[in-house]
Amino acid sequence: MICRDEAIVLKTRDFRETSKIAVFYSKKFGKISGLLKGIRKDPKKFASRLDFLSINEIIFYRKRFSELHLVSQCDFKNEFGCLKSDVTKFGLAGFCAELVYSIMPPEDAHPEVYGLLLDFLHSLEDTRAPQKLIYNFTLKLLSLSGFQPHLESCVICRKSIKEKAFFSNRFGGLLCPECSHKDAQCEGIIAGTIATILFFQNSNWPESLRLDILPSVERQLSRVIFSFLDFHLEKKFKSVKMLNELLDRKVNIC
Ligand SMILES: [Zn+2]
Questions:
Q1: pTM, full prediction
Q2: Residue 178 Cα, ligand 1 centroid: separation in angstroms?
Q3: pLDDT at residue 251 above 80?
Q4: Is residue 100 within 8 Å of 10, Cβ to Cβ?
Q5: Ligand 1 center from residue 156 Cα (angstroms)
Q6: Beta 2-15 vs 55-61: how paired, if at all?
Q7: Dist. CA 183 → ligand 1 center (Å)
Q8: N or C: which end of the chain has fewer CB within 10 A?
């Protein structure tokens, strides 16, 4: 089947002497892998350099029994040029691309994830405070992919939590005081952090950018989100350590 779609480049690698394999996140098909035959031998064969996070229009032959498809056309459409000129922002964009690559299963169509990645990259170009974008992006991606932490009640006994709440990576959400002993690693979580996570999970992108996060909430939010990622992603997400270093740096707007 011949397919056409708009797609963002998440990864590329050389294949044999002359070709490349690219992993795209596409609007209609989700994460797809494509072989671009001959692109290294003759770069003009395709109207794209396959730059990281560039947006391309691709035409590919979709194979039924393989996850590697043959890309016959790849035309460059747009890129996030401002990100390339800021090492910190480029690193943060890389973290989010890696997250999409790691969390989303192959060929699981999710136009909302494509839209989220575009919204995030556009906002990242224009911001001096990327922290909020990263939390927002990560929580929305976890929700869209079905990995979101359970915060509406205690994960174990399902009672609503009125007083002190604990966050458990192992159980994937909140524990009430009675159940908290079942996970020795759980930590107390303040109401402001819970409310912020729920707000990011349930608001649309423009709405969520208007939220101001208190410094006390931000410290805990960062720890909760990234330890949750570390715990649940199959491969240890090496980028989390790098991410914390990047978030401490200053960024420019273009
Ligand atoms: Zn409980």
A1: 0.91
A2: 6
A3: no
A4: yes
A5: 5
A6: antiparallel
A7: 11
A8: N
Distances, alpha carbon 243 to alpha carbons 91, 131, 253, in Å: 8, 10, 19
Q: Same domain, yes or no, for 120 and 186? A: yes
Contact 97, 53 (CB under 8 A): yes
Residue in the block written with tokens 């524990």: 175
Q: Are 185 and 71 contained in the same domain?
A: no
239: containing domain: 81-149+181-247
* CATH number for position 90: 1.20.1440.120
C-alpha 149 – ligand 1 centre gap (Å): 15
Instruction: Label residues 205-237 b or e (16+ Cβ within 10 Å = b).
Output: beebeeeebeeebbebbbebbbebbeeeeeeeb
Is residue 52 situated within a structural domain? yes
Please give the order of strands across the beta sheet that includes 187-189. 173-175, 165-168, 187-189
In terms of Cα–Cα distance, which of 74, 77, 68, 90 is closest to 23?
68
pLDDT in tens, 121-176: 999 999 888 889 999 999 999 999 999 999 999 999 999 998 899 999 999 999 99
| Counted domains in the chain | 2
Q: Any idea of the CA torsion for 222, 225, 227, 228, to the nearest 10 degrees?
A: 170
User: What is the whole-number distance in angstroms between the Cα of residue 232 and the centre of ligand 1?
Assistant: 21
Same domain? For 128 and 24 the reply is: no
Placement of tokens 């090492």 in the chain? 87
Amino acid at 238: K
